[in-house]
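Service request form, structural biology core

Requester: graduate student, group of Dr. S.
Request type: structure prediction, single chain
Budget code: on file
Notes: please return the result as structure tokens.

Sequence provided:
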Amino acid sequence: MRRVPAFMFLVLLLVPFPSTATTVRYLDLDSLVGSSSLVFHATVTQVQASNQGTLKSPRIVTDVTFTVHRVLKGTNPGPAYTLRLVGGSVDGYTLAIPGQPRFRTGEEVVVFLEFTGIEHVVTGMSQGVFRVAKDANDRPIAVRDLTGLSLVRPGGAPDQFEPGRPEEPLLLEELFRRVNESRAR
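Core staff response, request fulfilled:
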């Protein structure tokens, strides 16, 4: 039997492996509403990545523009709202952050945003985005895709969400009702 030298074991421990998840605190709907200063139902009208740095030192951001249909919490930002996210692809560079929401032009969403004192950011990373689709009965539903997140629940171990493993959907009107109820508490 051949033994692996101790230094090889140490090398394996010290070699960084790429992370496939970002660990964040789990936010249930009440926590999501409470942490957010702006919540709206919208359609994504434009997604535009740009390099705000230089070719030698890129700083990639993506501006996502929404047509706002309904404000559920906060001050109405008007008919259009643009959110800047860190990351994206431009000029042959890609910056991808596991758990950061990605948006596609034309998709319908409900977005929860918190104010950092400087700008709005998506509350709880992708936890703050519900994507709208249709169920088998053609009713609008809202679902969070938590791919790329490792969620820490109070008093528990982290839950890892694998690609394609979304939470249970809610009827869109039920989500609206629950957000309004949470605001009233």
